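Lecture notes, part 5. Sequence design as translation. It can be helpful to think of inverse folding as translation between two languages: the language of shapes and the language of residues. The source text, in structure tokens, appears below.
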């Protein structure tokens, strides 16, 4: 949800393509608040999930490094997002936020791969 709402914020903002690009006709303040709320909800859900999974010794080893990396990147993204919003959306911070979104996608994929178990073979 945070990715979708972030895309809407970008499409409504001043840096959505070139200067002649048509922007989404939505109030950027409203969609930015929705995006911020979805980010906070994602972070809370991730922390709750990690706490619940860490209760199991079996899952703890998979979560330690991967989740710490994911949470660090996610928190950096949140900070960049809030700073860019409250400083008038400077282009350099928008670029940093988009780059951070890519890093967060990579961290999410790594966490998923690190915590996935091989599928059970149906062939005997």
């Amino acid at each position: 949800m945070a990715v979708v709402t972030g895309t809407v914020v970008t499409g409504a903002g001043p840096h959505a393509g070139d200067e002649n690009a048509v922007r989404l006709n939505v109030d950027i303040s409203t969609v930015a608040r929705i995006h911020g709320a979805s980010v906070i909800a994602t972070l809370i859900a991730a922390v709750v999930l990690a706490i619940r999974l860490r209760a199991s010794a079996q899952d703890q080893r998979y979560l330690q490094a991967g989740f710490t990396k994911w949470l660090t990147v996610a928190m950096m993204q949140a900070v960049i997002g809030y700073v860019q919003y409250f400083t008038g959306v400077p282009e350099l911070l928008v670029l940093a936020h988009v780059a951070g979104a890519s890093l967060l996608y990579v961290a999410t994929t790594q966490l998923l791969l690190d915590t996935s178990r091989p599928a059970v073979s149906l062939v005997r």
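The translated text above is only one of many valid answers, since several sequences can fold into similar shapes. The helical segments are 2-12, 28-54, 57-86, 91-115.
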